[in-house]
Amino acid sequence: ALAALAGRLDFRVGVTDDRADWLVPEAFPADCELDPTAEAAVARLQHWEGGRYAALVTRGFREDLAALAALRDVAEWTYVGLLGSRRRVAAVLAEVPD
């Protein structure tokens, strides 16, 4: 739903999921770019022009940390958001090295 909304708002959209059965083109907007790893998505993002926005909607704490670690390789971010309870977000951010 978030990818569809972002696409309607004229964002260039990429989705990452390591579960092949979830990363099916039919489930996302036609021009959505799909990547099986955060590293592949970050490599693609390096070439995008304009503002860079990320919304982390992962299935768990370890995936949050891995995604944030991969995102650190992108030089400039306009926005990075992490979906979760305040407790979960605080726990993830406490584990992210400075």
In short:
The protein has helices spanning 2-8, 38-45, 61-71, 86-95; strands spanning 14-16, 33-35, 53-56, 79-82.
Topology:
Blueprint: H1 2-8, E1 14-16, E2 33-35, H2 38-45, E3 53-56, H3 61-71, E4 79-82, H4 86-95
Parallel strand pairs: 1-2, 3-4
Low-confidence stretches: none
Mean pLDDT: 89
What proportion of the residues is helical, as a percent range? 25-40%
**Which value, in Å, is the CA radius of gyration?**
13 Å
Which range does the strand content fall in? 5-15%
Number of strands: 4
Return the string of H and E elements. Answer: HEEHEHEH
Shape: globular
Q: What strand line-up does the widest sheet have?
A: 1-2
Major beta-sheet overview = 2 strands, parallel
How many angstroms does the end-to-end distance come to? 32 Å
Structural class: alpha/beta
Description:
With 98 residues, the protein is of the alpha/beta class. The protein has four helices and four strands, in the order αββαβαβα. The strands form two sheets. The protein has a two-stranded parallel sheet with strand order 1-2. Strands 3-4 form a two-stranded parallel sheet. The protein is globular, with a radius of gyration of 13 Å.
List keywords for this structure.
alpha/beta; two-stranded parallel sheet; 4 strands
